């Protein structure tokens, strides 16, 4: 299916007409996981395509932001425009046979609720991505991934609203142009579409992926054999031990992407730092940004109520006194220090608004 294909039929729920209410000067503190005190000039929630259309009409000529769980966003100031919060819900099994199930989730469904749905049925594919915060709609946007699996690996298709034409288009995996924490929606189609629903192909006879060392170790510690359920439990335990809970300490997960470097630079670096973690990549080697940042002395740094997490240097944290500007400035300093020490450019993963 091509990205241009107009889909005339879409599961009933998201076409339900409802009126929208536009609020002014709404605090987004509880809608961004950094917990930053910022406000939206105008704000609405949508639970259907009609509500989205009405919201977009009201936002005509204004800057617009589609908001899911706010777990991959850094607001550097108040938002001078319309924030449209996606609340399109519902999970449906749209097709199944004895081997596979196609499961479609509204873009506003919480990602981990979809994981739980799959795990309860014993259907494989997304258990390694347990407990990633945020919405199903944002998952293909940045091709979320964890513990050796990315959403592209079980992706079937998505439906998205094309803002300019008001049409609904369907995208298959190829049209999404997935890459590491990337998709076409972050690049050439940036700002053009609102993702409405996501369909995944889950495996009823799962091939389990425990290749990420920490999973095997955790299963061993728990005294359990690998299954969809035990892998999910192990991943949840590992994540809780490393990553701060946004309900307690504001953060947006990895602030930076792991960089890929050319072989010539890699050879120089590994000569100087034989213990440097590295992974094969399509063009060169992928390095662990967390390790690079830790080597620059940032891990656990507290700059007065904000700083760098003490268990994972890739995670910037707001301990209550942070602001978007301060966190952005900190990220700038970190990028410069890694560049200076290792000659490696690290790139932000979080969307700066
Ligand atoms: P938001 O932050 O609301 O939005 C992110 C971007 O997507 C914005 O540009 C927004 O405009 C756009 N967007 C959102 N929904 C839509 C839509 N329906 N249509 C069009 N555009 C949309 N990520 C990983 O990949 N792996 C991890 O292991 C991981 N761990 C994390 C751990 C923690 C503690 C935290 C806080 C974050 C972590 N993340 C991880 C990052 C984050 O969870 C994901 O990027 C997630 O997919 C963001 O979802 P969201 O709904 O919160 O998106
Ligand atoms: N490391 C350090 N110091 C640190 C952090 C990490 O030395 O402070 C080293 C670790 O010891 C390990 C290597 O770096 O050798 C990799 O660390 P880890 O396994 O924790 O994974 P990561 O590369 O830091 C990535 C993703 C996470 C995802 C995990 C698990 C990115 C940018 N981050 O982190 O995704 O959960 O792998 O698969 O790719 C996110 O995207 O927000 C996110 C949390």
List keywords for this structure.
alpha+beta; 19 strands; 353 residues; four-stranded mixed β-sheet; Uridine Diphospho-n-acetylenolpyruvylglucosamine Reductase, domain 2; disordered N terminus; Uridine Diphospho-n-acetylenolpyruvylglucosamine Reductase, domain 3; binds uridine-diphosphate-2(N-acetylglucosaminyl) butyric acid; 9 helices
Structural commentary:
With 353 residues, the protein is α+β, with helices and mostly antiparallel strands. It has 3 domains: 3-86, Uridine Diphospho-n-acetylenolpyruvylglucosamine Reductase, domain 2; 91-242, Uridine Diphospho-n-acetylenolpyruvylglucosamine Reductase, domain 3 (2-Layer Sandwich); 250-352, Alpha-Beta Complex (Uridine Diphospho-n-acetylenolpyruvylglucosamine Reductase, domain 1), CATH 3.90.78. The chain has 9 helices and 19 strands. The strands form 6 sheets. The chain has a 5-stranded antiparallel β-sheet with strand order 6-7-12-10-11. It has a 4-stranded mixed β-sheet with strand order 1-2-5-3, with helices on one face. Strand 15 and strand 16 (284-287) form a beta hairpin. Residues 1-17 have low confidence and may be disordered. Flavin-adenine dinucleotide is lined by residues 33, 65-73, 86, 107, 132-135, 137-139, 141-142, 144-146, 194-195, 243, 246, 251-253, 351.
